[in-house]
Amino acid sequence: MKFIKHILIVFILLATSITTAQVKFEAKVSKKKLGVNERLRIDFEMNKDGDNFVPPSFTDFDVVDGPITSVSNSWFNGKRSYKKTYSYFLSPKKRGRFTIKQALIEIEGETYKTIPITINVVAAVARPNGPPSADDIASGKLHLVAEVSKANPYLNEAITVVYKLYVSPEIGVSNNWREKDIPRYNDFWGQNIEIKGLSIQNAKFKGEDYRYVVLRKTVLYPQKSGNLKIEPLVLDVNVEVPSGRRDIFGNPLMTLVPKTVTAGSRTISVKALPEEGKPSDFTGAVGRFDFKVTTTKTALDATESLEAKIAVSGRGNLNLFELPKLTTPTSLEVYEPEHKENVRTNLNGMQGDISDTYTIVPQFKGKYPIPSVSFSYFDIKTETYKRITSKEIIIDVLNGPTANTAKTSNSINTKQAITPNTNTFAFIKTAANWTPISQQPFFKSSSFWILLLVPFLIIPVAIFIRRRRDKRAGDISGNRIRKADRLAKKYLGEAKKALGQKEAFYMALEKALHNYLKAKLNIETSDFSKDKIKTLLEQKKVDEAVFTEFISILKNCELARYTPITQVTMQNDYDKAAKTISLIDKQIR
Q: Which CATH number is associated with domain 287-397?
């Protein structure tokens, strides 16, 4: 009997030890000795699912990534195998020996602890083998580049700046990126080239395969010589980086990493135009041009009109120089010219034509020469100055009065004879023609009765106006509606002025919406986020449909600046914004 009792005790102890051995919770590290520039991976593994996992403090390390949770669940020969792991990537703060303390977890009501692990951190190694963080991967696979067509142009020579965002195939970029800071082109005349949609293209970048999109195209004309700085474009981008884990369907899971990327500033070394050979009438034209002076007719009668046109066409800085002036004889009456521009701007710069059209009216019969006109420009290709001179044009006035002075066909200035007048001061009146003013008494006059009756007429009008104003003041609902409409017009005024100019309109519309929220909700610009706006408007008892529409308009402002937008769409977005601001102002409490 005693023997059987001992056997039962041994059996119970063995069963207890087997049950206890079934639960495992342990810490594993990738290495126990590493350089200060390397990274350490630590995994906390368990063979049964647990709750309330508490990691150690990692006091002597920076947590680069984690916790990353992975689960392995499989069956083999009818036996279930389960493993759950919490993984961390750590970067040591300094050299030395450090202890990673215990981690805790609850499994089936019992608390389990890992064994502390000592890590020896030594000097930096030549080839660190630590796994890169998601932030490091995003930094190495995303590049914003400003490509400049020419870094050493002449003064007023066109250059182009194309901003490209290069993205490695290993990562992705979400659509809600935005421009944090746009470049400023001090000392340049610049014009942006509209981009209709963002098309993805493939290219090599630093010898590797990349995709890229063109975000901006700008044509610049430097306005002074020397080293000119182009400020950088800065973007806020959400980058999707593979996490190394997969979902239940085997698709890779991505980690979203916010990144700020910049194209960096660029310095343009602008050459001054050469002084040697510069014409005296040079006004700053740089490019390749044609020059013409034409008239609508060369024979007409006096007092009839004709038009003389000075025109420059070609490619260059057409908007940045003055046309030469037309010189005519004094017997031809000349009016101020009408200036016209037909200029298009693309990546090759400005091209088209500009002209000044003069209206000329001859006063006397005769032949009048319009002297030749010269136009000078600097030719970029040959790097020399060139001059184009028009031919002299003779205006033949067939019929009309003859000028009372001798003139020759070669004379430019025509002078008329002056006939003396002996009665020079005949226009001064020497005899007065005064008439007496009738004296009518004011009492009982028309003015007297009008002034007497006007106060009695004003009193009922004032009473009527006062009652209308009190009634309007008592109309709380109506006043709220009118106040909301005025507020919407106030904040959306700048956006309305920019209708038709896509980029300017959506920037003004977004600014108007932000300023309205700052005024109504008393929040700072740094607090702006869609979740924050939603929470505040919910607290102010604004209908869900209204604040959803407001957030939708904000999203449109972010996306519409980079996609083709019509005038009708801009008007619809403006009307939606005005209506939504009005509704919020009526509902907000």
A: 2.60.40
